[in-house]
Write a structure and sequence with these properties.
Low-confidence stretches: none
Shape: elongated
Structural class: mainly beta
Radius of gyration: 14 Å
Distance between the termini: 40 Å
Oligomer: single chain
Number of strands: 11
Number of helices: 0
Mean pLDDT: 96
Largest sheet: 7 strands, mixed
């Protein structure tokens, strides 16, 4: 019905940069918000950044000034530009979207995740 596909993960040295992308496709009436979560080994999944259809943006404190979330004009693709990466940023990054598949209800959807490894 609705699919979220992430790309852009990989291995990068400390201080380097990566850009993650997430494209939503399928039967979508509207996308209410999109965001990025991450889960490091042995830790809980946490919300890193999000952007709503109204334009409200949220960042977790640990990434402020380093990460930037953005979306395309159709609001079907969300990006996460990650600069000044640190080893503690190493995690599986998951795309999330709150979507109205039809006019009548909304649902939460998740991508499969993309691995980001920050190591020298």
């Amino acid at each position: 019905q609705v699919q979220l596909v992430e790309s852009g993960g990989g291995l990068v040295q400390p201080g380097g940069s990566l850009r993650l992308s997430c494209e939503a496709s399928g039967s979508i009436y509207s996308i209410n918000s999109m965001g990025w979560y991450r889960q490091a080994p042995g830790l809980q999944r946490e919300l890193i950044a999000s952007i709503s259809s109204a334009g409200s943006i949220y960042y977790i404190d640990s990434v402020k000034g380093r990460f930037t979330i953005s979306r395309d004009s159709a609001e079907s693709t969300v990006y996460l530009q990650m600069n000044s990466l640190k080893p503690e940023d190493t995690a599986v990054y998951y795309c999330h979207a709150n979507v109205n598949p039809t006019y009548y209800y909304d649902m939460d959807f998740w991508g499969r995740g993309t691995l980001v490894t920050v190591s020298s």
